[in-house]
Amino acid sequence: MEKLPYLNLGCGTRFHTAWVNVDMVSSSPHVLARDLTKGIPFPANTFEVVYHSHVLEHIPPAIAPVFIADCYRVLKPGGVLRVAVPDLEQITREYLRLLDQNLANETPKTAENYDYVLLELLDQLARNQSGGLLAEFIAKEDVKDLDFVYKRGGEEARHLREHQAAQKGTSKVGILMEKVKKGEFRSIKNEFKKRIWSKMFGKNYEIGSFRQSGETHQWMYDQYSLPRLLTSQGFEAARKTGAFDSQIANWPSFELDGKDGMIFKPDSLFVEAKKPMK
User: Fold this and answer.
1) CATH 3.40.1400.10, applies to 6-87+221-274
2) Interval 52-73 mean pLDDT
């Protein structure tokens, strides 16, 4: 299949074979493994579209403008940048709604939903181990309002529950091998090296290593701050859009933000902007 001049950065396991897909670790022959901390590895004015989903929040805010400027560089004039991030406004409004609801009339279900949204807001900023408390919450057997969790966490929450259930009784080596197959670790050797260093230097090394791994969120954005960031790096017409709405031709057919009306990450904010014609 001939490649479109469309670039998907930090794609993970969600990509389209007609796009140029790039991530730190390749999960498929259709994904290029490149170290994006060293910049986007393509010449200026190469692509008509640059897209990244739930990548920007993992970049420290002091470096985020540099990353966005590099997206601008590789776009052709008139090209579209599409960004998806966790929506700070949406999550915060839901937190405040549940706070008010529980202050007025607490029930076991609404109290647990409050706990979930609080974790959704804070856990990926504060966690010191993979998955954090949010993963533990989603995986527990006695969730009182699973529909609420799936509504908030979408496909990822559902897959996490199914994965945790399937792994019951699996050995630690088996779990490690599964992660290697999925590209979550570069190699078994690197994982065992990490564990040896952790034993030698203790908990502080373990936490520090995890905090530098890229899993934690470094910042959050809303419909005001994200367009402002894009505009600061030269983009124009930055605006909030929907999971299935885009200036990108045939966007829903690529099934990157959703499929059959289902949004993969319901907590997302979607923003698009254009590189000016010059």
Assistant:
1) no
2) 97
